Amino acid sequence: MMISLVEVQIASSASCCQELVHFYPSSASSPAVKMLSSLPSKVAKTSAVRLLNKSLNHQAVRSLGTAKSFHLDSPDNNETTYFDFTEENYERANRILRKYPDNYRQAAMIPLLDLAQRQNGGWLPLAAMDKVAQICHVAPVRVYEVASFYTMFNRTPVGKYFLQVCGTTPCMICGSEEIMQTIENHLGIKNGQTTKDGMFTLLEVECLGACANAPMVQINDDYYECLSKETMIELMESMKKDKLPPVGKWGSLPMNGQVSCEGPLGKTSLFETPKPPKVDPNRFKEGKVDPASVKERMAY
């Protein structure tokens, strides 16, 4: 458990380390706490607390992953950046607002942020968030809180095609690491980067809810499922030509003869006992699963 600055400072009084260890028993073995316990004076304890807190803050930032909970000015996102809705989008915004009572305009915050992001090429500058705050009659910080909480809102520029590769367990055992490596090699970028021409942004994300058709990638609004190295390359080549990938072949509709999101057993229901799949008794003999045949090896 992370120890906050306030908790450490409270513990830095006369009963400094006793309180710290009482609330966080695991901290007793910490070298910093042992050092703090041995200091003779309150002044020395206070100085040590500052160093300890600096270390804890560093750990906290690392625990947040790649997401930043703060804003840094950039050439395309600073206090001089301008944003306003187009006339067409003001009409859309008004239609959104009419769905909510006048005294609950803030309920429209998320759809308005989505509208602003779509108008601005897939990301939200501060000016767009401020405009949404103005329309919703709330303080800008309320909008910042929402935009920084939900991962579908991008606070830095992204490419025309935003590739989000699911890396959670079902996709991983079905070959998402190979999909990720294929994209990196084909586009010449790493996780979190954008190509120099601004066409592609690559990001590994947590579960996108299409586990039955792993591995999968979300490209902008659409899901592309049951991917292989070859079909992923074919997708990227299509996008390089600035053509929308054919949805009928991959996107939003499963491939490989499936007509919905059924698993390897086809459609099943709770009213009947499904026929068990053929399972190779030696499927884990080598300690790993071949992603190409993982669907045949599933036993559910």
UniProtKB/TrEMBL annotation:
Keyword Chaperone listed: no
Entry annotated with the keyword Iron-sulfur: yes
Cofactor: [2Fe-2S] cluster
Record-linked InterPro entries: NuoE-like, NuoE_dom
CC annotations in GO: catalytic complex; membrane protein complex; mitochondrial inner membrane
Region (Disordered): 264-300
GO term, biological process aspect, one: mitochondrial electron transport, NADH to ubiquinone
Biased composition regions of type Basic and acidic residues, renumbered to the chain: 275-300
Alphabetical keyword list: 2Fe-2S, Iron, Iron-sulfur, Metal-binding, NAD, Translocase
GO molecular function: 2 iron, 2 sulfur cluster binding; metal ion binding; NADH dehydrogenase (ubiquinone) activity; NADH dehydrogenase activity
Entry similarity comment: Belongs to the complex I 24 kDa subunit family.
Protein's UniProt name: NADH dehydrogenase I subunit E
Organism this protein belongs to: Nitzschia inconspicua
